[in-house]
Structures are given as C-alpha cells and as structure tokens.
What we know:
Elements: H1 3-27, E1 30-36, H2 40-53, E2 57-63, H3 65-73, E3 80-82, H4 86-94, E4 104-108, E5 111-115, E6 123-124, H5 131-135, E7 140-143, H6 149-160, H7 164-167, E8 171-174, H8 177-185, E9 191-195, H9 196-200, E10 206-210, E11 220-225, H10 232-241, H11 244-252, E12 256-257
Parallel strand pairs: 1-2, 1-3, 6-10, 7-8, 7-9
Antiparallel strand pairs: 3-11, 4-11, 4-12, 5-9, 5-10
Helix pairs in contact: 2-11, 3-4
Amino acid sequence: MGVARRVRAGIAGLGLGLALIAPACAAAGEVTVFAAASLSNAMAEIESAFEADTPHGLTVSLAGSSVLARQIQQGAPADVFISANPDWMGALQEDGLIAEHTRTDLLGNRIVLIAHEPQPPVGEIGKGLDLAGLLKGGKLSMALVEAVPAGIYGKAALQALDLWDSVAADVAQADNVRAALALVASGAAPLGIVYATDAAAEDRVTVLGTFPAGSHPPIVYPVAGIEGRMGDAAADFLAFLRGPAARAAFERQGFVVLGE
C-alpha cells in the first residue's frame, strides 16, 4: 500500500472512531440538583450510583427548601429541585419555574423528638407531655419555624398538641434541619425536633417519641425539573429517582417512597 493510500486509510479509520465515540459523548451531560438538607445521606448514595450507572455527572446542592426555592427564583442554575415541603414547590410552580408534567410526590417522612442524653422514651407524643420540664431550662432545637419545612411541621405539631406556648420562648432556631440536629448531637441543646431520617443518621441522639401524623400536615417531598433546563441528563435523573437503586438508598435512610 502506498503512503498516500495508507494516510487515507488512517484518516478514514480515525473518522470512524470519532463517529463511534461522538454519540456517547453527546449523550453525557451534567445535572445540578437542589435538594432539601434532610436528604444529605440518601443523595450521597444516589450521586455515586447515578454517575456509575449513567454517562452523566451529578452535582447536589443541599440546604433548607426555602433557601433553595428562593435561589431558583433568583435564577440559580438548578436542573432539578427536591423539596421537603409541597408549598415551596408550589411557589415555584406559580412563578412558572417548574417544567410541565415533571412534578411528582417522591417521599414521605415523620418528625420526632430527640435528646442528646439517653432518656426513657415517651412513645407517641400527646397533649399531656411535659415538654418544658424535659428541657430542664435548656433549648429546644428546631429548623426555622416559619420557613424551613421541618420547623413548620414541628411548630404545627406542637400547636396541635397544645405544647407550643409552653416552649416557644425556649426554641433555638437553626437554618435547616441538619443544623438543628447538630445542636442536639453536640449537646448545645438537650432536645430537638427533626425528621426521623435525620435522627437515624446520627448516633449521638436518642429518639424520645414520634409526633402523631394527624398533628401536622402530611410530610411529602415533591420533585420536579426546572423550566428551561430539562435536557436529557435531567430527564434521566428524574427517571433514576424512580428506579431500584434510588429506592433502596431512600429506604435505607428511613424514607417512605411514594407512588410506583
């Protein structure tokens, strides 16, 4: 084979190789997910599994749902939002920021009363609980009670059980539920109200009791894609959240997976 012919053959082979590689490269993408802080452990598992099972990269930003929703309203580059509260998802939907037909209810959870020092459990929390007495002059750690879902649910439950007025002055509010958990885990606050999944992720706290489901609105985590940012990678991630790997990760952390 002459030199010119060998060069042409080499170029043709290179072109074929690039043609085979190009579709795979084109299929790969990056997904930015804004997720409620209470999903920290589950999302760490899901990030690894998603990147192993797909050609896409995944970046997860964790904070209180209210903070994340406001960032999206201000133009933050999120592709997918997982909120710990339907109201914040609803606010984005009203603003036209949620991609049509992508919103679904993903997870359920519970809220519990936790303690730093091991104590006898109180079981299901009721109106007769001496919560102020259990504090012994210390603080009750909660996420922001007017903005962060865990704090909103906690305040609603305390009000429904006629316990709020006795402890309102002693509530120490944190920016998100994981920060509220940390205050109790470190001993800075003797008691706190967090999600059951958060308590399960922290060995330094003890669950004293669970708030009755009827004492607060249902705890639902909706997920949706963001309008204008629903590429193939984001769509693949939404589908992945409904698959067996994500389900197993959520269930290992104590979440209830909703729907099919």
